[in-house]
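Internal QA ticket QA-208
Title: Verify multi-chain structure generation after dependency bump
Assignee: T.L.

Test input:
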Amino acid sequence: MYTIFSEEGRVAIVLSLEEGRNPSPKPSLDSLLALTGDDLDQVNQAILRRMESRVDLIPKLAGHIIAGGGKRIRPMLTLAATKLCGYAGQRHILLAACVEFIHTATLLHDDVVDESDLRRGNATANVLWGNEASVLVGDFLISRAFQIMVEDGSLEILRILANASAVIAEGEVLQLLTANDTATSEDTYMEVITAKTAALFSAACRIGAVVADRPKAEAEALDSFGRNLGIAFQLVDDALDYSARQATLGKSIGDDFKEGKITLPVVLAYRRGDATERAFWERTLARLEQVPEDLATALSLMERHGTLRDTIERARHYGAIARDALAFFPPGPVADALSETIDFCIHRAY
Amino acid sequence: MYTIFSEEGRVAIVLSLEEGRNPSPKPSLDSLLALTGDDLDQVNQAILRRMESRVDLIPKLAGHIIAGGGKRIRPMLTLAATKLCGYAGQRHILLAACVEFIHTATLLHDDVVDESDLRRGNATANVLWGNEASVLVGDFLISRAFQIMVEDGSLEILRILANASAVIAEGEVLQLLTANDTATSEDTYMEVITAKTAALFSAACRIGAVVADRPKAEAEALDSFGRNLGIAFQLVDDALDYSARQATLGKSIGDDFKEGKITLPVVLAYRRGDATERAFWERTLARLEQVPEDLATALSLMERHGTLRDTIERARHYGAIARDALAFFPPGPVADALSETIDFCIHRAY
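Actual output:
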């Protein structure tokens, strides 16, 4: 782990996620993409086709965010999960598109909630077309996802994704309530990310077993894989918001800090800090009274208490559970690619 | 029709909706309520039960708007439609709750979009808890509606309400695009209200036939009844926004005018006006450059061209179609109550 300084002071800690591990090829999504790429092309075409509307602004705005450089990790998980279950039909294409529509709707509503200006280096839809349009196009996409599921005809898949959708909304509300609350517990933080992020990861994976008509135990194994992967993914995301690696993502560093969002690196730093440090977190995150040097101070406190390192440690724990869930399935290239996806989510430095 | 003057000048036109008709008892929702009241109590209980969440803010915020004095006209339509179809089971209770959840979600998102401060005389949820919470609780309610529909288990009902939900979002986006556009045509206005309002009225009615397992022709008759009733309802709503009767609703007069919303009374006044009048509408509604006297001027222009009267005339036309759709069903107290609902929607002066 090393630290970058700018003229303003320390601005970022570079997390070395490989610390203490043997050097190995950097894990990536390449294997997953190689296995699902043909299907993913079809998913992308389905997305373009199904976001059409006689109201031009809808595909324009939705297309802006959908084409905005996302990794499509959630629909790829659906595609890989169906492959892992030996499915040979075509239903997974549209269902993977549904998963991406639900994800996109939450991004659109998140950007309104966060008043974000940038997502992956691009201006957000709410900046370009206003909050109103972002809210309504999000509503359209979620409704369109349900239309497609109805067309698919599986009540079980409708149940899984309707549940995920309700849980995501609950998680987002809970996150809103914890914002600026430095006393937020690690338990509550875990509840937030399990709901807002992991619920869709688990649903995306679980429907793979349902489409393939596999036994309940396989559906549950995929659910567990997805849920634990999603938790690990979000933990690392929250650590990266304080890491220099973010800069290459087009995201500015310290977005969560500026908003007073309470993520695990902060939860731990607050708990482990002394009275002076807690006063610092309360001023900067609860009262949002910030001066430019505060981010550097925040980073040094996180470094002092090892909270970024430990956030990644927590992610490793969930990654390990995800890997064991996967062990339920026979080994092979799909299981390997999903296993590498866990490593990627934990070690990502893109 | 007569006009009310205040110190600022003319402030409202009192629409006499009975003009040219024989005096008769004022139509109300009383008969509909008498027929569906017991069921509606159960619907209200189901709403309270089903909006529960481990995140307290969700039932609190949702409860604020759901308890905020709405007439429950949409769920009452579902209840009456099932009764008209001779249904004797219990499924209609939760389905009527779904309809109200979808409606409530659109209200929550509308208030964010319109930046409204008041709804039915109460502070809106976005003022009390912020736009963010309103967006997210709206998302929760729509997801919860789909969860309940999945539990009910009818793919046909899921299809009807998923379609309605997508069409509503399209209509809201289209309305956003017509805001401040004085050149909006009557056709486009009709497209907006058919989508944003009539789609849910028609779906609420149609599902009555589906629950009762009645033939397609009855589903279509109820769909037509609901759609035309919804159009009439919205036309009158848009006229009432320029009418003194609104004051008793806790709504201020001229909200649409202040926002530059282009409704039929304006569409017609713009088309029928001369160059000076069009310049007035462009200044006040397109550029939103308004002084306090402008609302009075707007009202006098609408009066000169009879645009409120003609908006109500258009509503009567759709009301007549709704009545003929209803004629498909055997006469009786339910058909009578639904027929009176048409009259109520056109003549309402509450």
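Spot checks passed. Confidence is low (pLDDT under 50) at residues 1-8, 18-23 of chain B.
Status: verified.
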